[in-house]
Each structure stands twice: as C-alpha cells, then as structure tokens.
Amino acid sequence: MADHRSDSKTQNHRPQNLSTTLPSTAVSSTLSTPVQTPRKDSSVAASPSVSHRSSFAENLRNSPRRHPSFSGQTLTDLLMNPPVKMEGRDARFQGRDWRNIAVSEIIDPAETRFVELDTSIEDTTKLLIKGGAPNVVLIRESRKTKTAIGTFGYDDLNAYLLLVLGMSQPDELAAKLAARARTGEKLPLKDVKDHLGPTEEPTFLPQSANLTQAMELLGSGTHRIVICKDGTSETLGILTQLRLVRFFWENHQSFSATERLYGAHLKDLDVGAKDVLAINGDKPLSDALRLMHDQSITSLPVLDNHNNVVGNISHVDVRVSHLTTSLPIPAHH
Prior knowledge:
CBS-domain; 13% strand
C-alpha cells in the first residue's frame, strides 16, 4: 500500500511490517498493481479431520457457488458487455472536470455493512457472501458507532480457511485457533483477525476528497477506500476499484480526457504485466488459494497443459469450499 502521509486528508493505516516490495513474478489481474506482501512459506498439510459436529468450514459447503470477482470473470463481463444506463450518462457530471468530483458523489451508502468485534467468523462470512458488492464488510467496536476499525473480505476468509486446514501458520496461536475452529466453536473476529498474517489495512478518505486522491490510492495497490464524513470517523460508504471503473465507463462521454482513451490499444497505453502468475487446471483448489494468499494477489488465470487460458479463479472462490473436506480438488472445478 502506498504511503500517502504527505496528504493530510488521507488516513492510511498499515502494519509496520508490511512490505511494499513487489515480487518480480507476482501480478494482480485487477486494473492496478496491488501491494505484494511476501508471506512465510509453509508446507501444505493434509486436510485435517473434522469432528461430527458441523464446523464453520464444513458449513461453507452450503454457500452459493462461484460468484466471480472484479479481478476475474466480472472484469471480462464488464469489458464484453459494458453496463448501459437507460437514461444515458449522469447529467450531474457533464461538463465537469472529473478530477474535482467528490468521492461522496459516486459511492452507495447502502453497500456499507458492519459487523462487531464479537461477531463470529461464521456470521461475518454469511453477511459477506449475502451482501455481494463491494465484497467486504466493515468491523466496528460496537453497534453504537459507525467508525470502521477494520475490514473483512475474501482475502481474510481465504487466510482463515488455510489456517483452519493447517496450511498456514502465521503465528504461535494459529494452531490453537485452528483446533478450536475444527471442533465447531464459533470464533469471534476479535480472536482471529490479528492472526491471519499480513492483510490490507483500511484506508480512509473524507467525503470531500476528490477522485484524483482516490485514484492515486486505488492505482497504487489499495483495493478499497473507506469514505468518512468530513471531520469525523463516521463511515459513509466504500469506494472500490470496480466502482471507480464503472463510474468512468458509464460517464466517459462526459470527460474528454477519458473518452480518448477508450479508442487506444492496451499496448500503446503500456498497461498490464508481462510476468503473470498462473495455475494449471489439474492442480488442487487448495494450491490456488494458497498461492493467492502467499503472494497477496486476488486472482489467477487457469491454464491447460498447453498453457492456454481456460478460466480464472479468484479469492472469492473460497466459497467453493469442498476444499475443507475433500482435498485435492481441481482448480477449474
């Protein structure tokens, strides 16, 4: 995550041990390059036994099947079938300089969903899956406040499942937490959140901040920004990379600078990456989730034995959780 301390309006919190060094072979399939946080490489253990009491990991088998993320099929759908607003472009933005549009003008407060520190991982995951976009829930201390002190997204769920399966051990308490989870105990967020390894810390902007500031953050590796009421810590909404992309697509005719870009070729714009991580479709699903977790990326192309791209898997696919009881599973399943 880029350090924007020079911008007094930006509150960007991150752990001190968060590295901003990018591995030469790692790349996200989102439109910007995410922070690559190298994680400790531990050996992949066999699937642990699960007691007869239904555990959280087992219950995930009943979750809805694949719901593609922005970094995968959703991006493809967006490009191939761009959204068309029946009434045309938003009249509020015509003739304006996009750089000066306030972030509060393009967020949807209805997408703000909270859980508390005492909320169980299971209940948090249910809300995450049911809520859909922006594929994250905010953590607060209690129902009496709207101040976000953390986030829980699919990257966190991925890390949790790997911990429960014994495939990741970020610290000394990991084994004990995994044992508790496998007995079916409902673990509260406060017991787990700090033991999932390095994660993306919340990034904040006030509602009056403009899209220039937001784009600088989202283009430097931050996946989402918590928007707060000016002068307070009260959360008003969340701005994600996908929401920003949709805004520019739906309103690109209002901005001459961006309108010109749509006719340009990607190679001329010098965007994308030449070194891309991928996984073979014959590999277990666990290997794909582990690779995304270790490299702090959100999506992987799936290849056949001739290195042809046959699909995509993203961290949202932790919901395809047959992984918890029947390793190995093909990554393209």
